[in-house]
Amino acid sequence: MSAILISRIIGAVVLGIIGAFTSLPVYNFVQQFVDVLTLSQGVVTGLIAVIFAAFGFLITPYITIKPFQALIKLFTKSSAQSLLSGLIGITIGLIIAAIMAYPLSLLPNPLGQILPLAGLLLFGYLGAVLFVTRREDFTNLFKNMSNKMPARAKVESERRVLVDTSAIIDGRISDIAKTGFLGATLVVPRFVLNELQFVSDSADSLRRQRGRRGLDVLSELQENKEVNVVISDIDVEGVREVDDRLVLLGRQMNAPILTNDYNLNRVAELQGVNVLNINDLANAVKVIILPGESLQIAVIQEGKEYNQGVGYLDDGTMVVIENGQPYLDKQIEVTVTKILQTSAGRMIFAKPSLE
After folding, report:
1. What kind of fold does domain 288-352 have according to CATH?
2. pLDDT value at residue 156
3. Are 336 and 289 in contact (CB under 8 A)?
């Protein structure tokens, strides 16, 4: 027997008894307006008891079991930080309401009786909502007050960056973290970790290998003392796609997103969310090559266009060589003619210096 059915039965019994005991005043009250009442007192008592029992059977779960289940569901979805913030907010709100209760009780009735209770409910609710919605700001404020570090240095050290699945699978984030240049707490939402686990369990061997590599990279990051990695339960309701949830979280937390996904990069920028693109960083630290400079390169394959050759620099940059096909499998000197640089990477166009 379910808890809801048990609560309905108990509610029907309790309200049925209440209806039976209150039937006599109801009977006398009706007799004041009706001269001839064809129903006897026993029948009226039975009818009122049945009505009360039916009412109790219908509404009892909604005032007992249902609110309790809703609270359990809410507490299950909420993170520990949100619950603690809500508890602190309610406590502070109740303290403020208690301080204001005595002055409010001195007001003329009925204000003196109603306002203290209304203030208790209002300030408790406002305190919980305020601390839950702005918990990040209050956390940083309390840390700044308790730490002797300068405020600017503290804010910089507490900067948070949301990490996308593609950045973890890419693997270069681990090497970047070892250099100490990140200077931020890497926040990996639980739904990103779930997507990474889903990829590592894929039936496709290549996807499975990439997913397991991502898990290894995340493990390396957690062991790295140069960077702080946090697996967080923060989430947004009503959104299923991982990229959309990341963008919304970035807007709510005012935090940039670390990724190398070009589509996510564009969507986040359109919605005003800062993006830290690993490909942009890689392009920024590459050796600067200007049109007209010469360099030595090995032609290793044919290009897409007629008579083109393709080679690669040590950092992986593709070099497309016009009229380079005759030099296949040879190392030649080329002159740079054009450089194309985007968030997806950098490409260099050149021609043999002998021409």
Report:
1. OB fold (Dihydrolipoamide Acetyltransferase, E2P) (2.40.50)
2. 41
3. yes
Number of residues in the chain: 355
Note the pLDDT tens digit of each residue in 161-176: 888 988 888 888 888 8
As a whole number of angstroms, the distance between CA 224 and CA 216 comes to 12
User: What is the chain's alpha carbon radius of gyration, rounded to the nearest angstrom?
Assistant: 35
What are 215's two structure tokens? 């898990």
Note if the bond before 110 is cis, omega within 30 degrees.
Answer: yes
Domain boundaries, the chain: 3-66, 159-283, 288-352
Mean pLDDT for the stretch of residues 45-73:
82
The structure tokens listed for 232 are: 């967080």
Q: Tell me whether residue 320 is exposed, middle or buried, using C-beta atoms within 10 angstroms of its C-beta: 0 to 12, 13 to 18, 19 or more.
A: buried
- Structural tokens at position 260: 């190398």
For residue 212 the two structure tokens come to 């397991």
Q: What is the pLDDT of residues 222-280, one digit of tens each?
A: 888 778 888 888 877 778 788 888 888 888 888 899 888 888 888 888 888 888 888 77
Which residues, listed in sequence order, are joined to residue 265 by a DSSP beta bridge? none
Question: What DSSP element (H or E) covers 341?
Answer: strand 330-342
* Cβ-Cβ contacts under 8 Å for 124 (sequence gap 6 or more): 90, 93, 94, 97
> Alpha-carbon distance 23 to 31, whole Å?
12
End-to-end CA distance of the chain: 90
Would the pTM count as exceeding 0.85? no
DSSP 231-278: EE----TT---HHHHHHHHHHHHT--EEE--HHHHHHHHHTT--EEEH
Instruction: Report the alpha-carbon distance of residue 167 to residue 214 in Å, rounded.
Output: 9
Report CA-CA distances (Å) from 170 to 88, 167, 298. Answer: 40, 5, 27
Beta-ladder partners of 189: 232
- In three-state secondary structure terms, 300 is coil
Q: Would you call 161 helix, strand, or coil by DSSP?
A: strand
Distance CA 25, CA 28 (A): 5
Q: Which DSSP state fits 108?
A: P
* For range 168-188, the mean pLDDT: 82
The highest-level CATH class for domain 159-283 is alpha beta
